[in-house]
Amino acid sequence: MRYLFLWSILLWPYLQAATVLAPINQIEVDGSAKDIVLDGEWLYVGTDTGKMQRYNMQTRQFGAEVQFPDIKDFMGDTIHTRVSSLDAMDGRFVMLTDSGIGGYANIWMREGNVTQKLLSHKDKRSIVKIRFVDKEHVLFGYLSNEASLFDIANKKELYRVQLTESKFSDFALSNDHALAAFGCESGEITVIDTKTGKTIKILSGINKDNTYKVDFKNGMVSGAGQDRRGSLYTVSTGKGEYVEGSFLMYATGLSPSAKLVAFAVDEQNNIAVYKSSTLSKQYLLKGQKSTLNAIVFVDEETIVSASDDDTVMVWKLKN
């Protein structure tokens, strides 16, 4: 009986049932949300109807938006472009839209009421994701799993490095933007110095297939895997652990302190939130309508999630 009691104490965090939560707010956007980012109290959403929409998390009101014109697809039909990646910093915005030509991207910057094109399809760049490193430099993730640092003022790349031979999936910046973690089709996650492109660490051994999404907070990197594994690595040691899902994991997010990690865990698009130190499940977030594209922690208690539909969910973690 004594040993059974001791084992029950050790296993108690894992035996506890997770708290099931519904969203506290549902933000209706114009089209499917392809990417979301936060800058202060503003949430920015890129949609497949060619819009960059701004939503104030405090007032729950939309602000001014940017609308991109329709494009022609390879058949010559008129379709909406997609704002498939975007970022905001100190009143400056960068946005990536599809050109409809050869899989090449258009990259835009908006400041004040002025929008300018930084790169066009004529530059033949197969860029998938963009994020500010600082106000003057943008990190690019190429489909070919190349990383590139773009100088806005001079409209040129300061470096472009091949990380692996596998197809790019996603990247995420550290809290201070000094490092970035790149996920790819092989399951490896490459951590680079954003100023130089130099590889700092290879995180491997957990995901054996595509890491659809990654996040990077407070020295920890999480990966959402096609192999139904949610990985969590400590960058300094390269060591990691994982949780098992019942379906392909399409999204992940870490809280700012990295004390909590979230993964899309099942076919119902539920989000499980775990304590990072023990990987014990704390919360199960139910209500997402379709395949998840993004999970973003606003703070240690608030999560925003977006999926392939017109509703962005807001969740409050509470017992």
Give a quick rundown of the structure.
The protein has one domain (about 15-315): YVTN repeat-like/Quinoprotein amine dehydrogenase (Methylamine Dehydrogenase, Chain H, 7 Propeller). Helix content is about 5%, strand content about 55%. It contains 1 helix and 32 strands.
Structure overview:
This protein has one helix at 2-15, and strands at residues 19-21, 25-28, 33-39, 42-47, 51-56, 61-62, 66-67, 71-72, 78-79, 83-89, 92-98, 105-111, 114-119, 127-134, 137-142, 146-151, 156-162, 168-173, 179-184, 189-193, 199-203, 211-217, 220-225, 229-234, 240-244, 252-254, 260-264, 271-275, 280-285, 292-297, 302-307, 311-316. It has 319 residues and is mainly beta. The protein has a single domain (17-316), classed as YVTN repeat-like/Quinoprotein amine dehydrogenase (Methylamine Dehydrogenase, Chain H, 7 Propeller). The radius of gyration is 20 Å and the shape is globular. Residues 1-15 have low confidence and may be disordered.
